[in-house]
Specification:
11 helices; about 290 residues; 2 domains; alpha/beta; about 10% strand
């Protein structure tokens, strides 16, 4: 999951996951490296797996945690505080404090609760009147926010192991994937089908990855060969049949790679991801090989 989400060429995946979680279209501008996400395991500040900046200038930190930590709530408080101070210059006033959203994907049981997603923020409740303190009109204009909770750090705790249901919403589809490492063809959540393809590649064995790379190399060689012949034919005034030949060449290359993968015992889903062939076409090849 960390490799999948950190990939700079896969912003579409990270944007999709965050958009479904936060309930708005998220655009990722960049992945940030800082004191908070050093690579060293022994570093006390190694508390953030991924830190990104979105289109609104907010910072989103994401952590994937497998091992139980009883002080995890204090840990995420420390981590968000650290991120805020890292991005605040001494000369800046407090109104410029960066907004931080902390997303925690947890594979252990934290606290006592039956839900699988918890959201926390800061609000102030009157002791006597029990009203919620609000920003006044001038503050709303100044900060571009309509509530105090929108100014403060937000926390999302995703308790993956608590998810024991069918995926009925697009957000559920992402949680289903986080728990089961499976993305169904009918899933429609933003970015999730891109994640399926990338996850399949990351899950390949060395042999499967070599076959995939060989397939890509073959396609590039085929494209180069066809392009050369195309321009040669064009110069000679013979364009007819070139397009058809190109399609046949790619089809044959794809079929050859698929057969190699079948002979190696590769699962059909992976062959489908590598070659783009339909399940029905792959099953026909399986019959021909056997």
């Amino acid at each position: 999951m960390k490799r999948l989400l950190r990939s700079k060429v896969n912003f579409e995946i990270l944007e999709g996951f965050l958009s479904e979680l936060l309930g708005e279209d998220i655009t990722i501008l960049e992945i940030l490296e800082s004191e908070s996400n050093k690579e060293s395991r022994g570093d006390k500040f190694n508390r953030v797996d991924l830190k990104v900046k979105n289109g609104k200038g907010e910072l989103i930190i994401i952590e994937v945690q497998y091992d139980r930590e009883y002080d995890y709530l204090q840990r995420i408080l420390y981590g968000t505080s650290r991120v805020i101070t890292e991005h605040q210059k001494e000369s800046d006033n407090y109104a410029t404090l960066v907004k931080v959203i902390s997303v925690n994907i947890l594979y252990f049981d934290l606290g006592h609760g039956s839900d699988y997603i918890y959201h926390g923020t800061t609000s102030f409740t009157g002791i006597h009147d029990h009203d919620i303190l609000k920003l006044d009109r001038r503050q709303q204009i100044l900060y571009g926010k309509n509530s105090i909770s929108n100014l403060s750090t937000e926390y999302y705790l995703i308790k993956v192991n608590n998810f024991n249901r069918m995926a009925t919403t697009t957000l559920d589809e992402w949680i289903y994937f986080l728990k089961n490492q499976e993305i169904k063809d009918e899933f429609k959540a933003k970015g999730i089908q891109k994640a399926k393809q990338s996850f399949a590649l990351l899950s390949m064995s060395d042999e499967e990855l070599r076959a995939y790379n060989s397939y890509q190399d073959s396609l590039r060689d085929e494209a180069s060969y066809i392009e050369t012949n195309y321009y040669s034919a064009k110069m000679e005034g013979r364009e007819e049949g070139i397009t058809e030949g190109r399609e046949q060449g790619i089809e044959e290359t794809t079929r050859t790679i698929a057969i190699k993968l079948i002979e190696q015992g590769t699962e059909i889903d992976i062959i489908k991801t590598v070659t783009g062939l339909s399940v029905a076409a792959i099953e026909e090849l399986v019959k021909s090989v056997s």
